[in-house]
Write a structure and sequence with these properties.
Outer membrane efflux proteins (OEP); four-stranded antiparallel β-sheet; two-stranded antiparallel ribbon; 6 strands; 68% helix; 12% strand
Length: 447
């Protein structure tokens, strides 16, 4: 290939690459710009609306709603209809002394309907209906409980992503500081001021910082996937989130918090309704010891020429009473009593767990708040320490170890500050959840 043709080929290739770049780069930039920044309140609403767990709980409510309709049907009469065609091998004939009289046709059609209505059953139907209605209320409470659990999970994942992003910034600053120190060490080594050992030491520290930065970036990707999973989005969906503009307020008195929790915790209300349901089921079972009064009426028609009247109306008043069923009713009542005792123990266990969660999250908040106050000043002190040691090293007074230790101290101070900040936010979310506050509404006003 000649030099001229080679030059022409190179220009054509360059033009092709630039054309491709002109096509795809703007699209990539637009895609990046179109990735919306999600706030915590927006994410909470999306998480609680699109979660599969909420959909499952909603279906439980639909099932309970159907149970209410089934229970209400017991108040209405049951109506049955029938149509039949009878075929007999021999015609029915009655004998009166020396006479034989046919009773019916050999084949005949009959049809009719009957209606049965329970008049009174000593509270069996009403107890069953009220228990179904209480179960429906419980299903609605369970939806709220599931939403708040999902909200807490989302809040923790959200702050995990924000913390990872801050750790990435800290890691990038550390890499930048170590790279600057390495460049200065290489410059001083060329001037013959320091030994090769300082350059090697700075290079090793830089490599270690870069590896830790990669680990933090991977952790951020994992936390972002977890956030997408809660939102029922593809795991690789780009995640851009916004930090809180202001902290939500919550009760800071532990004794008062427990009083609020007793009033607000949905789990306690659910168990309270379960106790009510057991009482109603017990009343329903007790009604089986008593008779049930009913009315039954119907109409029947038989196409039989031997009948004086082809059709007939009937009305019957009666009662049913269960004399003996093998002890099933009494066993059911005993079972319900045991279930009530079990629920009472669950209430006690739940109360202990709530108190423990309250105390833990409260102490975590206090601890994190104190660490924030301590580490806030430590960052400024570490920055000043690094500046002094860099000047001393540049002037040949200090050592490379002093500079590297100063960079490590500053990185540690920044890491401790951001970790304390987001540990405080996670503990605050856990504390509000333990009280029984609705996290979606609590974080709804953030910007």
């Amino acid at each position: 290939m000649s030099m001229a043709s080679g030059r022409t080929y190179g220009i054509s290739l360059l033009f092709f690459i630039c054309s491709i770049g002109a096509i795809f780069l703007p699209a990539l930039c637009i895609a990046e710009e179109n990735t919306a920044v999600m706030t915590l309140s927006e994410g909470l609403k999306l998480a609680t609306e699109s979660s599969r767990l909420v959909k499952i709980a909603s279906l439980d409510r639909d099932v309970s709603s159907a149970d209410v309709r089934i229970a209400f049907s017991k108040y209405l009469p049951s109506v049955n209809g029938s149509v039949s065609q009878t075929f007999q091998a021999r015609q029915a004939i009655a004998i009166f002394d020396s006479f034989s009289v046919p009773e019916s046709d050999k084949s005949y059609l009959s049809y009719g309907f009957d209606a049965r209505q329970i008049l009174y059953d000593f509270g069996g139907r009403s107890s069953h209906y009220e228990a179904a209605a209480a179960a429906l209320d419980n299903a609605a409470l369970n939806i709220a409980r599931v939403k708040n659990v999902i909200a807490l999970d989302f809040v923790n994942a959200y702050f995990d992503v924000l913390e990872a992003e801050k750790m990435i910034l800290v890691g990038e600053k550390e890499v930048e500081r170590l790279a600057s120190h390495l460049a200065m060490a290489q410059s001083l080594y060329k001037e013959g001021v320091i030994t090769k050992n300082d350059v090697l030491q700075a290079g090793v520290r830089l490599s270690d910082a870069q590896q830790r930065l990669l680990t933090i970036e991977n952790l951020r990707a994992v936390n972002a996937s977890r956030l997408n999973n809660i939102l029922s989005l593809p795991l690789k969906n780009p995640v851009r989130i916004k930090d809180l503009a202001a902290e939500p307020s919550c009760e800071d008195n532990l004794d008062r918090a427990w009083e609020v929790a007793q009033e607000r915790r949905i789990e306690l209300k659910i168990i309270e309704l379960e106790m009510k349901i057991r009482e109603l089921k017990k009343a329903e079972k007790r009604s089986e010891y008593f008779p049930s009064f009913f009315a039954e009426g119907g109409y029947n028609y038989t196409a039989n020429r031997y009948f004086l009247h082809d059709d007939n109306w009937t009305l019957m008043l009666g009662l049913n009473i269960n004399i003996f069923n093998g002890g099933s009713t009494s066993a059911e009542i005993v079972k319900i009593d045991h279930e009530k005792e079990q629920l009472l123990e669950q209430v006690k266990k739940l109360a202990d767990d709530i108190k423990l969660d309250l105390e833990k999250s409260y102490l975590d908040m206090k601890n994190a708040a104190e660490r924030i106050n301590v580490t806030k000043d430590a960052i400024g002190q570490a920055e000043e320490n690094l500046r002094i040691n860099k000047v001393r090293y540049r002037e040949g007074v200090g050592t490379a170890t002093d500079v590297l230790d100063s960079i490590t101290l500053l990185t540690t101070a920044e890491t401790n500050y951001y970790r304390a900040e987001y540990e405080f936010r996670r503990a605050q979310g856990a504390f509000m959840f333990a009280i029984g506050l609705d996290l979606v509404s609590q974080y709804g006003g953030e910007g």
